[in-house]
């Protein structure tokens, strides 16, 4: 990924932080013009996520912490990682409202430059992150993920699904222009995932991965490394 695209992508999510959660009700950069679809699918994945989270948990690219309310009760400790100060500021609001500050550790970091403790986490959530990687970053990320999970530790992947409906307005892989509510435009890299893409991830990174939900907006999978 070119450095200017990386910077544009970083700036986009930094500036989008106050409006980020609009996507879960069909706002923001939503592809389908059906707000109820996003509400339904958000509820569906919210019900599934806690089943694969436990103990000492890490949420990688946690963003605004949107999913915290659905899973925090399953965790003895939660590490929230994101490189954007603005989204972490939104995340802190959710932590305060949930009253879970005593079991949360917030880390502002680029994971590729910040080592995490090995064999430490019972579970990991990776939300809308790998869809922004180039091939080299993906390999490095999964190597890192395997190293930080305990043996038999679970990981969850939540990302944007690839469907015929999306194909009418998006390319499956490549650069996209994203627009904020105030009209500013940014360039990001984005990949979408279907069932076969998840199967291929499992093969590439020697993992057993099960697709838990495949909708028109989201795809959710859970797995373990072999």
Please describe the topology of this protein.
Blueprint lengths: L2 H14 L18 H14 L6 E6 L7 H4 L3 E8 L2 H14 L5 E5 L12 E7 L7 H14 E12 L3 H4 L5 E7 L5 E7 L3 H10 L2 E8 L3 E8 L1
Parallel strand pairs: 1-2, 1-4, 2-3, 4-5
Antiparallel strand pairs: 5-9, 6-7, 8-9
List keywords for this structure.
alpha/beta, 30% strand, two-stranded antiparallel ribbon, 226 residues, Rossmann fold
Given as residue ranges, the uncertain stretches (5+ residues, pLDDT < 50) are: none
The percent range for strand residues is 25-35%
Report the CATH architecture. 3-Layer(aba) Sandwich
- Please tally the β strands and state the result: 9
The H-level CATH homologous superfamily, spelled out, is Vaccinia Virus protein VP39
Briefly, what is this?
With 226 residues, the protein is of the alpha/beta class. The protein has helices spanning 3-16, 35-48, 68-71, 85-98, 135-148, 164-167, 195-204; strands spanning 55-60, 75-82, 104-108, 121-127, 149-160, 173-179, 185-191, 207-214, 218-225.
Characterization of the model:
By secondary structure, the protein is α/β, with parallel strands linked by helices. The protein has one domain: Vaccinia Virus protein VP39 (Rossmann fold, 3-Layer(aba) Sandwich), CATH 3.40.50.150. It has 7 helices and 9 strands; from the N terminus they run H-H-E-H-E-H-E-E-H-E-H-E-E-H-E-E. The protein has a 7-stranded mixed sheet, sandwiched between helices. A two-stranded antiparallel ribbon has the order 6-7. The radius of gyration is 16 Å and the shape is globular.
